[in-house]
Amino acid sequence: MAASSFRSGSASNRDYPDQVALSLDDKLIGVLGYLDERLGRWDMYVDLRDQTIRYCFHDEADAFAFSRRFVQVREAG
User: Fold this and answer.
1) How much of the chain, in percent, has pLDDT values that exceed 70?
2) What is the pTM of this model?
3) How far apart are CA 71 and CA 77, in angstroms?
């Protein structure tokens, strides 16, 4: 399953409204290290219905950078 696109301004998470979803079967190489450097600026949850991990960001720029780094690489790969 390919990674889904970046969503900005989701009403489902007021504190971290900008979201990027990666499928549960995607390899997480580099993701946790990237996020560890940005503690307090993101949250995440597993959506079992959609089989994704949804990474939620407080700042749209962080969500865009994460999407550019991890989603587009997986789609091209």
Assistant:
1) 70
2) 0.72
3) 10
